[in-house]
Amino acid sequence: MPGRPARRQSVRPALMSTRSHERLEELIAADAIGGLDDAERRAMLAEMAEHGPDCAECATLTAEYGEVAARLATALDPMPMSASAEERLLAAARATGFDASTPLSSGFR
Ligand SMILES: [Zn+2]
Description:
The chain has 109 residues and is mainly α.
């Protein structure tokens, strides 16, 4: 029987590594701390959609930054604003012409 030449499997470049996550990482990091505006958020989602729902690197970045943000939040939250800090804030707000008649403590965040 004539032996067919074994076809060498062509080595395809790994597509994963050609996807750029540099810009995306910035967006994901900013999003984790709520720092994205609508346009940036849409850009992030569009970028992730291009990678597909099962891009492992996207998932890792999202999980990692989500975790960091959560840790930051718990580290910062239990500190109630001290009276003097609020006083300084109000003073700074007045200096910039901010209407300080509305209490800063409510609706902050
Ligand atoms: Zn990705």
